[in-house]
Amino acid sequence: MEDLSYRHIARQRAGGTRKIAVIGVVASGNLEVLAERNLPDAECLVEIKTAAEGFGEVWNAVIADFVERHSPGGVRFSINDGGARPDTVSLRLAQAARLMQEDDQ
Amino acid sequence: MSAGQTAKASPDRTGSWYEASARTRVRLLLDPGSFEEFIGPEQREISPHLKVFGLPEQFDDGIVVGRGLLDGAPVFVAAQEGRFMGGAFGEVHGAKLTGLLRAARDLKSISVLLLLDTGGVRLQEANAGELAIAEIMRAVIEARTAGVKVVGLIGGRSGCYGGGGLIAGCCSALAVSEQGRIAVSGPEVIETNRGVEEFDSRDRALVWRTMGGKHRRLLGGAELFSDDTVQGFRDAALDLLGSVADFGLDTLKAEQARLEDRLQRFGACPDAIDIWTAEGIADAASVPALPADQFIALADQVRRTSRDAR
Lengths: 105, 310
Prior knowledge:
Chain A: InterPro entries: Mal_deCO2ase/Cit_lyase_ACP (IPR023439), Malonate_deCO2ase_dsu (IPR009662). By secondary structure, chain A is α+β, with helices and mostly antiparallel strands. Chain A contains two helices and five strands.
């Protein structure tokens, strides 16, 4: 297992009022993303636990791209990875960001 | 956990139960926006054992537990995620379900829905998992003794195997879809232990007609058969919660008599098709291919579900 952590400055705060969202399942080639709105508005933190070691460079690129596209300021993302491909990771992160933009009930 | 639904309008329940995640099943099964999770993923109550094996954890350890409303009535609900480690029972996973059942036992008045989707005990934490199964079986019986209805809904990709099959056997009633296989030993386990002549695990048609939902319904192991939709399982849950008899010594005696009768009538049958023929189904070989609505009509004809046993 490898633990990775990426901290970014986001252009703006993530929209919506939702405090928490979870998407995906830890299975082969899949991952779960837990999003929590508990950081200062300009910060974004992505923490990863992955069974596939040695892919830090790829994670770095995927997450930098995600933060640039979605600007999820104020949100901490925690990932449990079951060896997902980069496109699946991007999709799950986008789904999590989308869920956080909904208004809490 | 919020359900992520901004509107309170009736959700689309026509989707597949089999394909849905545990969280989606719970969200769509219950009244919109009513689900409140206990020990949610943000609390990170993960398995203490998986890290030792270099295996990834899941924040809810593969089971969602909480409370909500079903057609306005409060229910406790537990849903296993069959895609995470085959929905298998580990220490934390099992403890969450045991705790839910004990809460139901203490409160006496709130029914429990178990959305089982499991291969049994998680091998990496086998002792803890086996203990969890025993604790859950005891908790189901204690809850039922206290007057709580415990209804199992089975239609997930992992089926309901191993200790999950034992827990299902302890429930007040079960609803199953065609995909929801119920057994203790799985096909490969039987073949490994007893030989391919006893059970050929690669013969998928044999597996489905021996362990699949249609056979379980016709044999009386499951009270209701549901189409593979969330609406089907919601209707089945409401039906069963409204019709389950009280639990007591008479129930157990009736169940014992039912099982003895079953063994006497079908014990010599070599295949499920022989059992269906013995039950009076004219074209038993056609049963596996029947659409859900036709099968439900047929099942209601040949076997009225006994509501005084279990």
